[in-house]
Amino acid sequence: MIVKNEEGTLANCLRSVSGVADEIIVVDTGSSDSTSEVAGTFGAKVVSHEWHEDFSDARNVSLDHATGDWILVLDADEELPESTGRRIPETVEAAQADGLELTVRSELPAGDAASYDDSRIVRLFRNRKEYRYIMPIHEQIRPSIEKNGGKIFSSDLVIIHHGYASMVVQGKENRADRNLKMLHEAILKSPAEPYFHYQLGSVLMSTGKRSEALVELKSVLDLDYRKMGGAILDKLYMKISQLALEKNDFVSAIQNADSSLRINPENSISMYVAAVGYLSMNRIADGYEYLLRIRAIGGGSPRIGRQLEELIDACEKVLKA
Length: 321
Fold this sequence. Notes:
- The protein is an alpha/beta fold and 321 residues long.
- The protein has helices at 10-16, 35-41, 55-64, 82-94, 142-147, 175-189, 194-206, 210-220, 230-246, 250-263, 268-280, 284-296, 302-320, and strands at residues 2-3, 25-28, 45-48, 70-72, 78-79, 99-107, 116-126, 152-161, 168-169, 173-174.
- The chain contains 13 helices and ten strands.
- Helix 9 packs parallel to helix 11, helix 10 (250-263) packs antiparallel against helix 11 (268-280) and helix 11 (268-280) runs antiparallel to helix 12 (284-296).
């Protein structure tokens, strides 16, 4: 873990790995509160490290101190569900991979279309000196594992991320302001890196700068965007579709939603966008088909689920008329 001023959330995170982790490495990048003391009460090895405006740098310091065969990476505003913690030992024991993707389930603010957002991220991997993080923000371990011939498999393990429900990080700093600053600096250094533009568009979207976000996310498609991988491309198309729908550009909304669904056929947000796009164009039968797809996967996000049956009933009344 890397932390800074996390005294309010750290105990909950460390409590969730109690009995799971053989050792806990906490790299403190300059806390002025009791973060280090909280970590110490859970038997963590606390390492002080100066912050260099680079998350990968701090992450890699934490890896340098790890002695176990496998490394699990968490943030202070995350926790392991009991079911995940219970299954990690048997999962790594049987693993034929060098890295495992976990679902990081991020709780979203009340005004968002969905109640949570799932991302597939490599968070559990073998402890090898050649496996190190890259990217100064939204850091990634996958590229170094793959570069060194390591295999990455999917798992059904889950991490719960509470942080996106709050825009404050590290005790008092605004998450969006911090990320915008770091992303603008990263783009100045690497203007052709699509991942940075994608993340910048995502932050702009989360802060209500929807028009700017749409421009930024669309710009990714003019770069070497396919190298980002399917999981991110799914999110890219989904977000473009949501923003296009808000502008009543129904054709673009549907096209991008379908691009997302070709990558991830169970993306309920993209299904919902396509459904609303078709219904807004008075193509009731087409919209109805997408609504039924959402129902078939269990209703999607709880916030979508509350409206789903009402929309299906309304469509059925029109189609039967």
